[in-house]
Write a structure and sequence with these properties.
Blueprint: E1 2-7, H1 16-27, E2 31-36, H2 43-53, E3 57-60, E4 73-74, H3 76-81, E5 86-88, E6 95-97, H4 99-110, E7 118-122, H5 126-136, E8 141-146, H6 149-161, E9 169-173, H7 177-181, E10 186-189, E11 212-215, H8 224-231, E12 235-237, H9 239-255, H10 261-272
Parallel strand pairs: 1-2, 1-3, 4-6, 7-8, 7-10, 8-9, 10-11, 11-12
Antiparallel strand pairs: 3-5, 5-6
Helix pairs in contact: 1-9, 1-10, 4-5, 4-9, 5-6, 9-10
The chain binds NADP nicotinamide-adenine-dinucleotide phosphate (NAP).
Length: about 270
Protein backbone atom coordinates (compact mmCIF):
# COMPACT_ATOMS: atom_id res chain seq x y z
CA UNK A 1 0.00 0.00 0.00
CA UNK A 2 1.27 3.49 -0.90
CA UNK A 3 1.04 6.29 1.66
CA UNK A 4 0.50 9.88 0.56
CA UNK A 5 -0.25 12.82 2.78
CA UNK A 6 -0.30 16.48 3.67
CA UNK A 7 1.90 18.41 6.09
CA UNK A 8 0.59 21.68 7.49
CA UNK A 9 -0.12 23.36 10.78
CA UNK A 10 -3.04 23.27 11.31
CA UNK A 11 -4.32 20.54 8.94
CA UNK A 12 -7.35 19.34 10.89
CA UNK A 13 -10.00 20.61 8.46
CA UNK A 14 -8.23 19.70 5.22
CA UNK A 15 -10.38 18.23 2.45
CA UNK A 16 -7.39 16.71 0.67
CA UNK A 17 -7.79 13.25 2.31
CA UNK A 18 -11.36 12.62 1.05
CA UNK A 19 -10.51 14.18 -2.33
CA UNK A 20 -7.45 11.97 -2.96
CA UNK A 21 -8.96 8.83 -1.43
CA UNK A 22 -12.00 9.18 -3.70
CA UNK A 23 -9.53 9.09 -6.59
CA UNK A 24 -7.75 5.96 -5.28
CA UNK A 25 -11.08 4.22 -4.74
CA UNK A 26 -12.35 5.09 -8.20
CA UNK A 27 -9.20 3.72 -9.87
CA UNK A 28 -8.72 0.75 -7.50
CA UNK A 29 -5.35 2.07 -6.28
CA UNK A 30 -4.16 0.56 -2.98
CA UNK A 31 -3.21 3.79 -1.19
CA UNK A 32 -4.07 5.99 1.78
CA UNK A 33 -3.82 9.79 2.19
CA UNK A 34 -3.16 11.04 5.72
CA UNK A 35 -2.47 14.39 7.39
CA UNK A 36 0.58 15.24 9.51
CA UNK A 37 0.95 18.30 11.73
CA UNK A 38 4.65 18.91 12.48
CA UNK A 39 5.70 21.77 14.78
CA UNK A 40 5.91 25.15 13.02
CA UNK A 41 9.72 24.96 12.61
CA UNK A 42 9.65 21.30 11.59
CA UNK A 43 8.70 21.30 7.90
CA UNK A 44 12.04 20.24 6.38
CA UNK A 45 12.61 17.65 9.11
CA UNK A 46 9.15 16.19 8.50
CA UNK A 47 10.01 15.76 4.81
CA UNK A 48 13.25 13.92 5.66
CA UNK A 49 11.37 11.69 8.11
CA UNK A 50 8.68 10.95 5.53
CA UNK A 51 11.39 9.91 3.05
CA UNK A 52 12.88 7.53 5.64
CA UNK A 53 9.46 6.07 6.40
CA UNK A 54 8.78 5.29 2.75
CA UNK A 55 6.00 7.83 2.18
CA UNK A 56 5.38 8.09 -1.59
CA UNK A 57 4.22 11.70 -1.86
CA UNK A 58 3.41 14.71 0.28
CA UNK A 59 1.39 17.85 -0.23
CA UNK A 60 2.57 20.87 1.71
CA UNK A 61 0.48 23.72 3.06
CA UNK A 62 0.82 26.74 5.35
CA UNK A 63 3.27 27.40 7.00
CA UNK A 64 5.73 24.97 5.35
CA UNK A 65 5.65 25.75 1.60
CA UNK A 66 8.93 27.71 1.73
CA UNK A 67 10.67 25.75 4.53
CA UNK A 68 10.57 22.44 2.67
CA UNK A 69 12.75 23.88 -0.09
CA UNK A 70 15.67 22.89 2.18
CA UNK A 71 14.74 19.21 1.95
CA UNK A 72 13.90 18.80 -1.76
CA UNK A 73 15.20 19.50 -5.25
CA UNK A 74 12.65 22.02 -6.58
CA UNK A 75 11.71 21.97 -10.24
CA UNK A 76 12.15 25.17 -12.24
CA UNK A 77 8.65 26.55 -11.62
CA UNK A 78 8.69 25.80 -7.87
CA UNK A 79 12.12 27.43 -7.60
CA UNK A 80 10.87 30.57 -9.37
CA UNK A 81 7.70 30.73 -7.27
CA UNK A 82 9.79 30.03 -4.17
CA UNK A 83 7.28 27.58 -2.74
CA UNK A 84 6.63 23.83 -2.92
CA UNK A 85 3.21 22.25 -2.38
CA UNK A 86 3.85 18.76 -3.78
CA UNK A 87 6.78 16.43 -3.07
CA UNK A 88 7.58 13.29 -5.05
CA UNK A 89 9.67 10.75 -3.12
CA UNK A 90 10.27 8.46 -6.10
CA UNK A 91 13.48 10.40 -6.79
CA UNK A 92 16.57 10.85 -4.60
CA UNK A 93 16.64 13.61 -3.45
CA UNK A 94 12.85 14.06 -3.45
CA UNK A 95 11.63 16.60 -6.01
CA UNK A 96 9.49 19.62 -5.10
CA UNK A 97 6.75 20.98 -7.34
CA UNK A 98 4.19 23.79 -7.20
CA UNK A 99 0.85 22.57 -8.50
CA UNK A 100 -1.03 25.73 -7.44
CA UNK A 101 0.13 27.44 -10.66
CA UNK A 102 -0.94 24.60 -12.95
CA UNK A 103 -4.06 24.07 -10.81
CA UNK A 104 -5.14 27.64 -11.49
CA UNK A 105 -4.58 27.25 -15.24
CA UNK A 106 -6.41 23.89 -15.39
CA UNK A 107 -9.33 25.32 -13.37
CA UNK A 108 -9.68 28.09 -15.96
CA UNK A 109 -9.36 25.67 -18.86
CA UNK A 110 -12.09 23.48 -17.32
CA UNK A 111 -14.39 26.50 -17.70
CA UNK A 112 -13.23 27.17 -21.28
CA UNK A 113 -11.55 30.40 -20.21
CA UNK A 114 -8.90 31.37 -22.74
CA UNK A 115 -5.46 31.67 -21.10
CA UNK A 116 -4.34 34.68 -23.12
CA UNK A 117 -4.48 38.45 -23.25
CA UNK A 118 -4.27 40.52 -20.05
CA UNK A 119 -4.77 39.32 -16.49
CA UNK A 120 -5.01 41.18 -13.21
CA UNK A 121 -3.74 39.22 -10.20
CA UNK A 122 -4.72 40.81 -6.88
CA UNK A 123 -2.28 39.65 -4.18
CA UNK A 124 1.44 38.96 -4.11
CA UNK A 125 1.69 36.28 -1.39
CA UNK A 126 1.99 32.55 -2.08
CA UNK A 127 -1.13 32.25 -4.24
CA UNK A 128 -0.33 35.52 -6.04
CA UNK A 129 3.16 34.31 -6.90
CA UNK A 130 1.80 31.01 -8.24
CA UNK A 131 -0.86 32.81 -10.29
CA UNK A 132 1.56 35.40 -11.70
CA UNK A 133 4.19 32.85 -12.77
CA UNK A 134 1.59 30.33 -13.97
CA UNK A 135 -0.13 32.89 -16.21
CA UNK A 136 3.05 34.58 -17.46
CA UNK A 137 4.39 31.14 -18.45
CA UNK A 138 1.34 30.95 -20.75
CA UNK A 139 2.29 34.28 -22.40
CA UNK A 140 -0.35 36.25 -20.51
CA UNK A 141 0.43 39.91 -19.75
CA UNK A 142 -0.01 40.17 -15.99
CA UNK A 143 -0.80 43.22 -13.85
CA UNK A 144 -0.21 42.45 -10.17
CA UNK A 145 -2.00 44.66 -7.62
CA UNK A 146 -1.22 44.29 -3.93
CA UNK A 147 -1.93 46.10 -0.67
CA UNK A 148 1.84 46.35 -0.14
CA UNK A 149 2.80 47.86 -3.49
CA UNK A 150 6.52 47.03 -3.15
CA UNK A 151 5.73 43.31 -3.03
CA UNK A 152 3.78 43.62 -6.29
CA UNK A 153 6.55 45.51 -8.09
CA UNK A 154 9.24 43.12 -6.78
CA UNK A 155 7.20 40.10 -7.93
CA UNK A 156 6.57 41.69 -11.32
CA UNK A 157 10.31 42.19 -11.78
CA UNK A 158 10.98 38.55 -10.87
CA UNK A 159 8.33 37.33 -13.30
CA UNK A 160 9.53 39.50 -16.15
CA UNK A 161 13.22 38.66 -15.68
CA UNK A 162 12.80 34.88 -15.28
CA UNK A 163 14.35 33.22 -18.34
CA UNK A 164 11.62 30.66 -19.05
CA UNK A 165 8.81 33.20 -18.88
CA UNK A 166 7.24 34.46 -22.06
CA UNK A 167 4.67 36.91 -20.62
CA UNK A 168 5.50 40.11 -18.78
CA UNK A 169 4.27 41.56 -15.49
CA UNK A 170 3.83 45.01 -13.94
CA UNK A 171 3.27 45.79 -10.26
CA UNK A 172 0.72 48.21 -8.78
CA UNK A 173 -0.97 49.25 -5.57
CA UNK A 174 -4.64 48.42 -4.99
CA UNK A 175 -5.59 51.96 -6.05
CA UNK A 176 -4.76 51.05 -9.69
CA UNK A 177 -7.30 48.21 -9.86
CA UNK A 178 -10.08 50.08 -11.68
CA UNK A 179 -7.71 51.36 -14.35
CA UNK A 180 -5.92 48.04 -15.01
CA UNK A 181 -9.16 46.04 -15.02
CA UNK A 182 -10.73 48.17 -17.76
CA UNK A 183 -9.07 46.24 -20.60
CA UNK A 184 -8.33 42.99 -18.75
CA UNK A 185 -9.63 39.56 -19.83
CA UNK A 186 -9.03 37.75 -16.54
CA UNK A 187 -9.08 38.64 -12.83
CA UNK A 188 -7.65 36.41 -10.09
CA UNK A 189 -8.18 37.17 -6.42
CA UNK A 190 -5.11 35.74 -4.70
CA UNK A 191 -5.60 37.62 -1.43
CA UNK A 192 -7.34 36.23 1.64
CA UNK A 193 -9.95 39.03 1.42
CA UNK A 194 -13.41 37.45 1.28
CA UNK A 195 -12.50 34.42 3.36
CA UNK A 196 -15.28 33.90 5.91
CA UNK A 197 -16.41 37.50 5.32
CA UNK A 198 -18.72 39.38 2.93
CA UNK A 199 -15.96 41.58 1.51
CA UNK A 200 -14.27 41.91 -1.89
CA UNK A 201 -10.77 43.18 -2.70
CA UNK A 202 -12.14 44.73 -5.93
CA UNK A 203 -14.76 47.51 -6.20
CA UNK A 204 -17.90 46.10 -7.86
CA UNK A 205 -18.00 48.98 -10.36
CA UNK A 206 -14.57 47.96 -11.74
CA UNK A 207 -15.93 44.57 -12.93
CA UNK A 208 -17.32 44.06 -16.44
CA UNK A 209 -18.89 41.43 -18.64
CA UNK A 210 -15.75 40.70 -20.71
CA UNK A 211 -13.95 39.34 -17.65
CA UNK A 212 -13.43 35.82 -16.36
CA UNK A 213 -12.99 35.99 -12.59
CA UNK A 214 -11.35 33.27 -10.48
CA UNK A 215 -11.38 33.68 -6.70
CA UNK A 216 -8.73 31.55 -4.94
CA UNK A 217 -10.75 31.89 -1.74
CA UNK A 218 -13.01 28.82 -1.38
CA UNK A 219 -14.72 29.47 1.94
CA UNK A 220 -17.38 30.55 1.21
CA UNK A 221 -17.59 29.13 -2.32
CA UNK A 222 -19.65 32.08 -3.50
CA UNK A 223 -17.62 35.06 -2.33
CA UNK A 224 -18.67 38.71 -2.49
CA UNK A 225 -16.27 39.12 -5.45
CA UNK A 226 -17.90 36.27 -7.38
CA UNK A 227 -21.40 37.60 -6.61
CA UNK A 228 -20.39 41.05 -7.89
CA UNK A 229 -18.72 39.48 -10.95
CA UNK A 230 -21.87 37.48 -11.77
CA UNK A 231 -23.94 40.66 -11.49
CA UNK A 232 -21.56 42.37 -13.93
CA UNK A 233 -22.03 39.52 -16.44
CA UNK A 234 -18.54 38.05 -15.98
CA UNK A 235 -17.67 34.34 -16.16
CA UNK A 236 -16.91 33.09 -12.64
CA UNK A 237 -14.75 30.24 -11.33
CA UNK A 238 -14.79 29.49 -7.60
CA UNK A 239 -11.71 28.62 -5.53
CA UNK A 240 -12.65 24.96 -5.14
CA UNK A 241 -11.79 24.44 -8.83
CA UNK A 242 -8.21 25.62 -8.21
CA UNK A 243 -8.05 23.49 -5.05
CA UNK A 244 -9.34 20.51 -7.04
CA UNK A 245 -6.87 20.86 -9.88
CA UNK A 246 -3.81 21.42 -7.69
CA UNK A 247 -4.79 18.07 -6.13
CA UNK A 248 -5.48 16.44 -9.50
CA UNK A 249 -2.05 17.54 -10.72
CA UNK A 250 -0.37 16.04 -7.60
CA UNK A 251 -2.43 12.82 -7.95
CA UNK A 252 -1.36 12.38 -11.58
CA UNK A 253 2.28 13.12 -10.83
CA UNK A 254 2.38 10.54 -8.02
CA UNK A 255 0.30 7.73 -9.51
CA UNK A 256 1.07 8.17 -13.22
CA UNK A 257 -2.68 7.74 -13.84
CA UNK A 258 -5.17 10.18 -15.31
CA UNK A 259 -7.11 11.45 -12.27
CA UNK A 260 -10.84 10.73 -11.95
CA UNK A 261 -11.67 14.42 -11.76
CA UNK A 262 -15.43 13.97 -11.28
CA UNK A 263 -15.06 11.66 -8.25
CA UNK A 264 -12.43 13.92 -6.68
CA UNK A 265 -14.58 17.00 -7.31
CA UNK A 266 -17.65 15.35 -5.72
CA UNK A 267 -15.64 14.43 -2.61
CA UNK A 268 -14.18 17.93 -2.32
CA UNK A 269 -17.47 19.77 -2.81
CA UNK A 270 -19.23 17.36 -0.48
CA UNK A 271 -16.92 18.62 2.25
CA UNK A 272 -17.23 22.28 1.33
CA UNK A 273 -20.98 22.70 0.90
P1 LIG B 1 -0.39 34.89 1.88
O1 LIG B 1 0.89 34.39 1.29
O2 LIG B 1 -0.45 35.15 3.35
O3 LIG B 1 -0.77 36.24 1.09
C1 LIG B 1 -1.90 36.99 1.48
C2 LIG B 1 -2.19 38.06 0.44
O4 LIG B 1 -3.41 38.70 0.81
C3 LIG B 1 -1.13 39.16 0.36
O5 LIG B 1 -1.05 39.62 -0.97
C4 LIG B 1 -1.72 40.23 1.28
O6 LIG B 1 -1.28 41.55 0.99
C5 LIG B 1 -3.18 40.10 0.94
N1 LIG B 1 -4.06 40.62 1.99
C6 LIG B 1 -4.27 40.10 3.22
N2 LIG B 1 -5.17 40.83 3.90
C7 LIG B 1 -5.52 41.86 3.08
C8 LIG B 1 -6.41 42.95 3.20
N3 LIG B 1 -7.11 43.14 4.33
N4 LIG B 1 -6.55 43.79 2.16
C9 LIG B 1 -5.86 43.60 1.01
N5 LIG B 1 -4.99 42.57 0.84
C10 LIG B 1 -4.82 41.71 1.86
O7 LIG B 1 -1.59 33.88 1.59
P2 LIG B 1 -1.72 32.89 0.33
O8 LIG B 1 -1.14 31.59 0.66
O9 LIG B 1 -1.25 33.61 -0.89
O10 LIG B 1 -3.31 32.67 0.28
C11 LIG B 1 -4.19 33.72 -0.15
C12 LIG B 1 -5.59 33.15 -0.31
O11 LIG B 1 -5.59 32.20 -1.37
C13 LIG B 1 -6.10 32.40 0.94
O12 LIG B 1 -7.47 32.68 1.10
C14 LIG B 1 -5.89 30.94 0.58
O13 LIG B 1 -6.81 30.09 1.23
C15 LIG B 1 -6.17 30.98 -0.92
N6 LIG B 1 -5.52 29.89 -1.65
C16 LIG B 1 -6.34 29.09 -2.36
C17 LIG B 1 -5.79 28.06 -3.10
C18 LIG B 1 -6.70 27.18 -3.90
O14 LIG B 1 -6.28 26.13 -4.34
N7 LIG B 1 -7.96 27.60 -4.11
C19 LIG B 1 -4.41 27.84 -3.12
C20 LIG B 1 -3.58 28.70 -2.38
C21 LIG B 1 -4.17 29.72 -1.64
P3 LIG B 1 0.09 42.12 1.66
O15 LIG B 1 1.22 41.53 0.84
O16 LIG B 1 -0.02 43.57 1.56
O17 LIG B 1 0.10 41.60 3.09
Amino acid sequence: MDVYGLIGNPVGHSLSPPMHEAGYEQLGIDARYVTFEPPEDGGAEAVRSAANLGVSGLNVTIPFKQDVLDAVEPDDLAARIGAVNTIDFSTDPPTGHNTDAVGLVRALEHHDVSISGRAVVVGAGGAGRAAAFGLADRSVTVDIANRTTEKATALAEEVTSADAVSGTATGHGLDAIEEILADADLLVNATSVGMEEDRSPVPAEALHGDLAVLDAVYSPLETRLLKDAQAAGATTVDGAWMLLYQGVEAFERWTGESAPVGAMNDALRGGLE
